[in-house]
Amino acid sequence: MAFASRLPGLSGLLGAMLIGSVCAAPGHAEETVEAFYQGKTIDMIIGYSSGGGYDRYARLVARHLGKYIPGNPEIVPRNMPGASSRLAAGYIYNVAPQDGTVLGTADQSLSVAQAMGESLELDASAFGYIGSPTMENNVLITWHTSKVSSVDEAKQIAIPIGATGGSTSSQYPSIMNALLGTKFEIVSGYPGGNDINYAMETGEVDGRGSVNWASLKPLGWYEEGLINVLVQIGLQREADLPDVPLLYELASTDEDEQLLRLLSAPTAMGRPIFTTPNVPEERLQALRKAFDEMVADPAFAQAAADEGLSVIPLSGEQLQKTVSEILATKPEVAARLSEFIGVSD
């Protein structure tokens, strides 16, 4: 509780003094964005533990974004893992100060989860989206020794596919089985992607239900012919994979295409960076402008390349539009997808 509010009459006195000072100096300008951020520290809340893709991109942004923001605030990354990043998202939405001093990153599929009716205790459209440093498709792959190297072959031959559990690595092959007629035998429960990779190499499973292309590409497996990329999940094809079909392109009906587009939409969010709701418009626009300048700077691109990270940026306006489009999905389409994924209140 503020000190003034504990003393009867003092709040009114201070208010009168403030009004008097304003009246005495009618030409006094409001606090500028630069003045607000001067000497400030911005928290970068990361909804996952250290070392993963979200964490690496968020820390890269945290190291560079401050010098493009008026006032040059320091940005400090803080990991807040839990509930598939819902803990961090809830903190940013419900608890953090709504003044532009808190940024964050969380699950790219939050808006899809909201559209399907998941109880999030937040509205994904109310965040102030700043931008995403990259947009990356997910892919479903098989090892080069597998009898299945295409979706058509996967419809004829049953093969084991590794997955980490209730995630996209199991959702994609499961939905492909239901809608496309593939025969993937999903082996879930692997602790992480590296464990599935090892299982592929040793022949324990034939493939992996989902892996981020940007994470997979540096391994060189595709160029060396060690893997087959059966399908990519996204709304536009990766430049490196021009001949690999997008998942929604394989739909046989309009209803299935709508469902698969919704399932694929989160990849268009990349690694979203956002701030709290209700940030003053001039600060939100300053943060967006700073982000756009940062990703256009060759120094940032080089810093990302030094860490093996790709830069395919999306603006805050693009992210905001994508979220709005996802949340405008027809209820029957969202409900149908939730039946496949198993979302519950």
Topology readout:
Blueprint: H1 10-24, H2 33-37, E1 41-46, H3 53-64, E2 74-79, H4 86-94, E3 102-105, H5 110-115, E4 128-132, E5 138-143, H6 151-154, E6 159-162, H7 168-180, E7 184-187, H8 193-202, E8 207-212, H9 213-216, E9 227-233, H10 254-264, E10 273-275, H11 281-296, H12 298-306, E11 314-315, H13 316-327, H14 331-341
Parallel strand pairs: 1-2, 1-3, 6-7, 6-8
Antiparallel strand pairs: 3-10, 4-10, 4-11, 5-8, 5-9
Helix pairs in contact: 10-14
- The class by helix and strand makeup works out as alpha/beta
Low-confidence stretches: 1-29
Number of E-state strands: 11
The sequence of SSEs as H and E is: HHEHEHEHEEHEHEHEHEHEHHEHH
According to CATH, the homologous superfamily of the largest domain is Bordetella uptake gene, domain 1
CATH topology of the largest domain: D-Maltodextrin-Binding Protein, domain 2
The 3D shape can be described as globular
Helical coverage, percent range: 25-40%
Taken as a percent bin, the fraction of beta residues is 15-25%
- The tally of helices reads 14
- Based on the structure given, which CATH architecture of the largest domain is correct? 3-Layer(aba) Sandwich
How many structural domains are formed by the residues?
2
Can you list the strand order of the major beta sheet?
A: 2-1-3-10-4-11
User: Rg, please?
Assistant: 23 Å
Mean pLDDT: 88
CATH class of the largest domain: Alpha Beta
Measure the end-to-end span.
36 Å
**Main pleated sheet:** 6 strands, mixed
Note down, in words, how this protein is organized.
It contains 14 helices and eleven strands. The two termini are 36 Å apart. With 345 residues, it is of the alpha/beta class. The protein has a six-stranded mixed β-sheet, sandwiched between helices. The chain has a five-stranded mixed β-sheet with strand order 7-6-8-5-9, with helices on both faces. The protein folds into two domains: 206 residues, Bordetella uptake gene, domain 1 (D-Maltodextrin-Binding Protein, domain 2, 3-Layer(aba) Sandwich); 129 residues, D-Maltodextrin-Binding Protein, domain 2, CATH 3.40.190.
